[in-house]
Amino acid sequence: MRKVISILGLFGFCLALVMAGCVQPQVKPTEQPAEKGKQKVGKEELYVPEVKPMTPAECGRCHAAVYRTVLKEGGKHKFQCTNCHKMYHIFRAEEKWEQIIPKCTDCHGYPHGKGKAVTACQSCHIDGHAPRKLPMSQNLEANCDKCHPKVIAEMKKFPSKHSEQKCSACHEKHGYIPSCMDCHEPHVASLTTNKQCLACHPVHSPTRRLGYKPDTPNEICGACHKDVAETLAANETKHHDVACVECHIKHKYIPKCSECHDQPHSETLLKKFPDCLTCHIDPHNLPSKAATTSGEKK
Fold it and tell me: What's the distance, Cα to Cα, between the start and end of the chain in Å?
C-alpha cells in the first residue's frame, strides 16, 4: 500500500513540474524590453520638419549610368539634381513624361531663337546630362550659322575648296578639331601640327593672302615653288642669301626693286631703262641681259 502511495505522489510531483513549465505570464507587446543595441524611435523622430535634398551621389545609387555621365561630361550641368528634377518618383497614370521631365527653356530660355528648327533642343543636345556632347546631325549642321556666324561669313567672303565642303566633312562631331594632315600632305616633313599650318593658312579661308613670320624657311615656299627655289639656291648673287619672306611679305605679293634698291645706278641709266628686269631678267638669278648673251655672269 505504501508503495502505491509513493508512486502516486511521485507522479503528481512530476505533473506539477510540467504544468509549471507550460504556463508563462502574459506580457503586453508594449511592455517587451527593447533588444540590446536598439532604441525606441517615435514618429516625431522618423518625420522631421526639414529634409535635406538628396545629393547627386545619393541619386547615383539608383541612377548609376546617369551619375557617371554627369560626372564625366556634365559640364555646367554638374550641379544638384533637384535643381532641374523638381518632380520625380511620380508613377501616377495621369502624369505624362513630358510633364515630369524638366524643360530646357526653364533655365536657358531660347538661346538660338524661337524658330522650329532651333527649339527642338534634343535634336542637337541629345543628352541633357552631357549638354556639350553633340554628334553631327542634319539639324545641327543646318544651323551652324546660329552659333558660328563669323565662321560662315568668312567662308563666304573667301571662297575656297573648304567652303565647298559641309561642316561635317571636317567636324565629325561638335567641337572636334581635325588635323590638317587628315586631308592634306604637309609641304615639308617638318610640318606636323595644325599650329604650323595655321601660321600661313587660316582654316576657314585658306586662300586668303597672309603675311609670314620672319623666320619662315625657304623650304616651305619651295614646296609649291620648286623651280624658283632651285634657281635661287643655285644663284651666286646676293639674292641667294635672302629669305623669300623678306621680299614676298604676303603670298603672291610681287615687290618693286626700289623697295630695297633705292638708286643702284645713275639717273641717266635709270631713265633709259626704267624697268629693272630689262637687264636683270630674273630676280631669283640676277644676270644682266648682256652677260647672258655673252655667257658670262655679272
Answer: 165
pLDDT in tens, 127-145: 999 998 888 888 888 888 8
Give the residue-averaged pLDDT of 171-183: 90
* pLDDT confidence tier of residue 39, bands split at 50, 70 and 90: low
Which residue from 154, 159, 251, 161 is spatially nearest to 199, judged by alpha carbons? 251
Name the range with the highest mean pLDDT among 67-71, 94-98, 129-133: 67-71
Backbone angles phi, psi at 250, to 5 degrees: -135, 155
Question: 123 near 174, Cβ under 8 Å?
Answer: no
Q: What is the pTM of this model?
A: 0.55
Q: Is 50 exceeded by the pLDDT of residue 31?
A: no
List the one residue out of 117, 226, 106, 125 whose CA is nearest residue 173.
Answer: 125
